[in-house]
Write a structure and sequence with these properties.
- The protein has a domain at 18-235: Ribonuclease Z/Hydroxyacylglutathione hydrolase-like (Metallo-beta-lactamase, Chain A, 4-Layer Sandwich).
- It is an alpha/beta fold and 320 residues long.
- The chain has helices spanning 55-65, 83-86, 101-121, 200-213, 230-256, 261-276, 282-297, 308-318; strands at 18-23, 26-31, 34-41, 46-49, 73-77, 96-100, 140-142, 145-149, 156-161, 171-175, 180-184, 218-221, 227-228.
- Helix 5 runs antiparallel to helix 6 (261-276) and helix 5 crosses helix 7 (282-297).
- A hairpin with a 4-residue loop joins strand 3 and strand 4.
- 38% of the residues lie in helices and 20% in strands.
- The chain has a seven-stranded mixed beta sheet with strand order 1-2-3-4-5-6-7. A six-stranded mixed beta sheet has the order 8-9-10-11-12-13, covered by helices on one side.
- It starts with 17 loop residues before the first strand and ends with a helix.
- The radius of gyration is 19 Å and the shape is globular.
- Residues 80, 82, 166, 185, 194 line the site of zinc ion.
């Protein structure tokens, strides 16, 4: 049997991208399971949430946004350090780029390797990759919370850390006035979770509890459709938790009985596939996800760095 194509390297089908106006001056771009992005309009400027994988991909989004507003982008907020979220930053011409303290640490520590790794895994997202000027430099970092007043009667945008989750430095963007939450990759709506750099145990408990505590009425997750209404928002959060808990249950069980990571992978896939196997990037993510959780069970707190070589090695070991 021919071996499975590596990660999403064979996924070349173009997705439909849809700009949705969530409230006056609040925009989301969703893309059928590809990474979502957003923008929030203040009186005199725009705050962009997520940068996409390349300046070209970012420009495609900005072109759509420019049909609604021509204000300059003052702040670009990065929810976390992953290449497909940050390497398009230069296209925004932002005055400042904002992220969590740990996101800056992670870009400095492993941004280069992550760039190569994500390019290999998801080449389709890297439109005109030669346009990337280099790693993204963050200007403003914070540890807990930042509030940005939007002016007029627009209220403010709150950027907040909810604890370790999808990475060590995920932040959410919360609009209290509209009860809209941009959750980044901490929540996915009917898309598989990538947890290769995650803290599964924290994420599944306190971090998602904190995300849920906003009582958002609209939630834009990292991938998938916008969740509208508290019931659907809670469902997206609990789906995410269900994916994590399923992984935790199986991987810890196999780890405790002295099994192998390959067994953990196969049993986790069998458990999750009936519920989540049809979602985008499930097959792509699961080997990296299980390997990271296995490392956590081994007591490795700070995630090991993914490189091209390590990607292939883990893929070949698990996904055949
Ligand atoms: Zn991510």
């Amino acid at each position: 049997m021919a071996s499975k194509p590596f990660a999403s390297s064979a996924d070349l089908g173009v997705k439909t991208e849809t700009l949705e106006v969530l409230a006056d001056g609040v925009y989301a771009l969703t893309a059928e399971g590809d990474p979502n992005v957003g923008a929030i309009e203040a009186e005199d400027f725009i705050i962009a949430f997520e940068a996409r994988a390349t300046p070209k991909a970012a420009n495609d989004w900005l072109e759509m946004l420019r049909k609604h507003t021509n204000k300059p982008v003052k702040y670009l907020v990065l929810s976390h350090y992953h290449a497909v979220r940050v390497l398009g930053a230069s296209a925004f011409g932002a005055e400042s780029i904002i992220a969590h303290d740990n996101t800056k640490v992670l870009i400095d520590e492993r941004g280069k390797q992550d760039w190569a790794s994500e390019f290999g895994r998801m080449p389709r997202l890297f439109r005109e990759p030669e346009g990337i000027p280099g790693l993204t430099q963050v200007d403003i970092t914070f540890n807990n919370k930042i509030e940005i007043p939007l002016g007029g009667d627009r209220g403010s945008l709150i950027l907040e850390y909810c604890g370790r989750g999808h990475t060590a430095g995920d932040i959410v963007a919360w609009l209290p006035k509209h009860k809209i939450l941009f959750a980044g990759d901490l929540v996915e709506a009917a898309a598989a979770l990538y947890t290769g750099d995650a803290f599964h145990f924290d994420w599944a408990k306190e971090t998602l509890d904190k995300v849920k505590s906003y009582r958002a009425e609209t939630l834009v997750g990292g991938r998938g459709a916008v969740a509208r209404g508290i019931e659907n928002v809670d469902a997206a959060i609990e789906q995410t938790r269900g994916f994590l808990n399923g992984m935790i249950e199986k991987v810890t069980e196999v780890h405790k009985r002295g099994g192998t990571v390959k067994e953990a992978f196969e049993e986790t896939r069998d458990l999750l596939a009936p519920k989540f196997g049809m979602w985008p990037i499930f097959e792509h993510c699961l080997p990296f996800d299980v390997q990271r959780l296995w490392d956590e069970c081994d007591g490795i707190d700070w995630p090991r760095i993914w490189t091209d070589e390590r990607d292939q090695e883990v893929w070949n070991k698990l996904q055949d």
